[in-house]
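REQUEST ID: PR-0412
SUBMITTED BY: lab tech R.K.
PRIORITY: routine
TASK: structure prediction, single protein chain
INPUT:
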Amino acid sequence: MNTKQLITRRLERAYKNLEVANSLLAGRFCEDSVSKSYYAIFIAAKALPPTKNLDPKKHSGVISLFNQHFVKAGEVEKEFAEILKFAQKERTSADYDEFYSASVEEAKTQLENADRFLQRVKEILQEKGFL
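STATUS: complete
OUTPUT:
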């Protein structure tokens, strides 16, 4: 699989996770929607490093490379680093905290953030000629 195919596949997977998060929210499965929204964001973030011949394997590596090579380099606005950080925190609570209960509004906010994040990543990939 070449770099362009890998990037395209990751972005497709990110959008699929976004669609699932939306369906879960519609069914009022808020914690699961929060989690899937995070994975949409995470996988979209993971689509960017291959544009610089980088391919992290762990969540921490994806986040670190996103911040270092894209946010600090000025290619991505800082607000998207905040979205990623917040989404990860919420996903951890949704998946592991037995007492966490996401509201519809919280899940909706996470979903809207994921949609914005994916749109921005898609724009960057188009600008760089990978889509």
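NOTES: Residues 3-26 form the longest helix (24 residues).
REVIEWED BY: pending
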